Each structure stands twice: as structure tokens, then as C-alpha cells.
Amino acid sequence: MSAPTRDVTGQTDISKMQLEPDGSFKRAPSAFRNQVEKGGKFPPEKDRYHLYVSYAC
Fold this sequence. Notes:
There is one protein chain. The chain is low in regular secondary structure and 57 residues long. It is 0% helix and 0% strand. It contains no helices and no strands. The radius of gyration is 19 Å and the shape is flat. The two termini are 26 Å apart.
């Protein structure tokens, strides 16, 4: 049985990542900072939102 293969053509080239002067990598801040809450920027509303879950790392 052969080992499974996967398409990695869409993965980012790590050699092109922006590094800090000391060589460390600083992750960009997450874009997801708001919550669905009553009185908030995104009020709860039936059938408005969908939750997608991935068990990937």
C-alpha cells in the first residue's frame, strides 16, 4: 500500500514570510475580534449566522 499524497501547491512558501530584525516571526493580529451578542456590533438573529468548524491544526 502506498502512502497517501496531498496537494501542497496552495501552501505558503515559508522562505517568503516577513521576519523581524532578530529573525523571529510575528503573527498578524486575528481579524475575528467581535462577538455575536445582544446590543453588540453583530446582534443575534435567527438563520443569520453559520458556524463552520474544522478539526485541523
